[in-house]
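User: Structure please.
Assistant: Input sequence and predicted structure:
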Amino acid sequence: MQLAVKSGVFGGEVTPDRRDASQPPERVLGRVIACDGSRATILSAVSTGNWLAGDAWAIGRMVSINLGRSRIVALVYRVHAVEAAWTDTADNPIQVEVEFLGEVQESPDGATRFQNGITSYPPIGAVAHRIRAGDLALVHDLGERGGVVVGQITQDASIPAAVNIESMLSRHFALLGTTGVGKSSAVALLLRKAVSVRPRLRVLILDPHNEYSSAFPDLALTIDGDALDLPFWMFKQEELADIVFRGRPTLDDEPDILREVVAAARARYRTASAPDPARDLGASLLLKRPLDLAGGRMSGPETVPEAHDAPTPYRLKDVFKVIDEFIGLHEQRWPRVALRSLKVRLESLHADPRYRFMFGRANMYETMAPILGQIFRIPLHGRPITAFQLGGLPGEVVNAVASVLSRLAFELAMASEGAIEVLVLCEEAHRYVPADPQLGFAPTRQAIARIAKEGRKYGAYLGVVTQRPGELDPTILSQCSTIFAMRLANERDQQIIRSAISDASASTIAFLSSIGNREAIAFGEGVATTMRMRFASLAPHELPAMGGRGAPEEAPRFDPTLDDLMRRMRA
C-alpha cells in the first residue's frame, strides 16, 4: 500500500522512504500521531507472526521519521497495544513512544550528515520507517575525530562501534556494570586498544582481585606481593599511620610520636653522609627540643624542611633509636607507655613476612628511581601495562598502597611535562573513593580526585571500574566524560547513570537492567552519540581470570591437605 501525507510544512507530498521499487512495503512502520519537544508517538499495527512485532519496534532500536530532505532519527523506548484484547486474524493497532536523537540531512549533491538535535519537528501523519543501514552508520560515525573499533552496534552487527581513544582517555572514563556481565573483558579490550594507538601511554591497573595477570601476557608486567618493592619511606605520614594503626587500639600520643620520630630519622639520614663534629651535639639538642608540630619545623641545629613528608629515605633503626632515646630522657616529652607501644607496633610490622615489600629491601634504595622505573615501565621494554595485584597484600595496607601509587602517577606525569602519559585504572573504585566522605581513606580519595580534576593538563588519566556506581563518589564519576554502562539491576545505580547522561533523557537507559552480557550503553565525549553496543570477543589467552588463574578448565586441580592450606594462608 502506498502511503503519502499532505504537509503544509513541505508544500507537497512526503512519500515513504523507499530507496527503490524492490523494497518491501513493510519498510513503512507507521505514522506520527503526537509530538512534543523531544518525543513523538507513532501509530502502527502488527499481526500475529509479523516480523515487525519483534524487530522494528524492539525497545532500544532506532527508527527514522521522513521529512523529505531530512530524516529524524528516534529511539524506541516504549510500546503498548491500543486495545486491551489481541486478535490473531487481523492487524492489532499499537502505539510506539520514541525519543528524538538527531537528524540526518541531505545536501543537494546527495551528501548526508548527522547532527544531534533536530531543526524541524515531524508533522502529524509523517511516515515512520525502518532506519537505513547507511543512516545508522552515520549516526555512530566519529567523522574527522576517528576512532578504534571495540565492538558492534547491537541493532546491526555489520556496523562497528567506534571509540575515540584521545577523548576517552584525556577526559577520563568509567565502566559500570554488575558482576558477571563482562566488565573485566571489556576493560582488557579497551586497554589493548588504548596502548596500541598511544605509544607514550603507561597503564597502572589497581587490581584487587588479581584478574589481569593473565589478560596481557604480551603487554604487561605483573607485580604481586613477592615482586613488589615499595619502601616504607615512600609513604607519606598519613599513609604510614594508616598502616601502623588501622584496626588496632591506639594510645592518644602514638600518631604524634610517629610523626616526630620519622622526621628525626629523616634528618639523621640526610646528615649521616656529611661528617659534622657538631652533629652529635645537634642530635642531643634535637631530643631535648623536639618538633614544634604546629609549625612543622624543628628547633635546634637539625631542622626539618617544610616538606618534611617528602619521600626521602630514612632507616628504621634510626626510628627505633630515637624512640629509645625518648624513653631514656629524664624529662619526659611523651609517656613511656606510648613510646613502648609504638616501638612494639613497628617491630611487629618489620618482622611480619607479609610486609616484606615495605621493610625487606627498603634501605637498598637511595632514591625512588628504580621503583618508579619498575612500576611505571620506564623504559617500556614493550610492556606498557603494569598489573598491580593488590589482592595478595594485607588488607590493612591496600588503601595506603593505592594512595601512594595514585599520587606517584600524578607526580610522574606532571614532572615529565606530558612526555610520559599515565592511566590509572581503578578496579572496584567504590572502595577507594566511596560516596560517603566518612568512609574510605582520605589520602587515597585526594590522590584519585587530583588525577580526575587536574590530571588532563599533565597527561595523567583515570579509568574507573565499579559494579556499584551508587556507592562511588559522584564527584569522581562526574569527571568521567565517557561512560560505558553495562547491565545494572539496582535502581539507585541506574539513577546515577540516568543523571549522568547529558545528551538524552532517562528513556535511553530504561532497558539498562535487561541488556545482555558484553552489551553496554556508551555515551559521552569518546563516542559520536549515545549508542547501544556489544563489545568484541577476546581470544581465550587475553581474557582476565579471577585470582590470575586461566580458564576454569585450565586451572590446576589438586586436593589440598590442611597443612597445604595453612602454608598458603601464611604466605
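Confidence is low (pLDDT under 50) at residues 1-16, 18-23, 274-308, 550-556.
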